[in-house]
Each structure stands twice: as C-alpha cells, then as structure tokens.
Amino acid sequence: VQLVESGGGLVQAGGSLRLSCAGSGSIFSINRMGWYRQAPGKQREMVARIDRAGSTNYVDSVKGRFTISRDNAKNTVYLQMNSLNPEDTAVYYCNADVLFGRATIDYWGQGTQVTVSS
Hints:
This protein has 118 residues and is mostly beta strands. 0% of the residues lie in helices and 60% in strands. It starts with a strand and ends with a strand.
C-alpha cells in the first residue's frame, strides 16, 4: 500500500492550495484518513481527519480555513487550504488507517512541503 501526496508548493499569505493523497495497492477498505503537519523544530500535529462516513475534525488553528474531503471510490483524500498564513508552513503528511480483515494498519505518505511567504 502506498500513499502519494501532491499539491504542495510556495504561496503568498492569503493564498490557497489543495493537497491530494491517493492510496494504491491491495486496499480493501480505508477507515479514517487525515492530514498531519510538521514544522521545523516542532512536533507533528494533526491538521484534519475524516472517517469513511464523512465525519470530520480539525485542529483549532485551521477551522474555517481548511476543508478535508475524500473520495472513497478512489481511495483519495483532499485538503483545501484557504487564507494561508506563514504559520501554516510545514511538511504535510497524509495518513490512512487501512483495514485488512480484522486488523488495521496505519500508513503514511512521504510528505509534501507547503511554504507560505509573508
């Protein structure tokens, strides 16, 4: 199973970016998917998560600016990021809880850099 992220880059403050993460391989079903980020010198933090039914939760700092969504048929999760500010600069990682029968295995993408200039 692989998670491949795309959509990162450099944007000015106030701008927008859309991240995508596509899962491939022997995937029967994915439960929760999410986006995490890690800025230099800081711990990785959860940004947004979405379960298979579409229920979401966000870290307080992005509420009202970021929107997570998913396409279950494509095993893909998206993160629409609006009103970006320099504090959003980080490497963004995709995460997926992949179901294999009764077991759940946690997978991570390789990360995509998001840089917001002031």
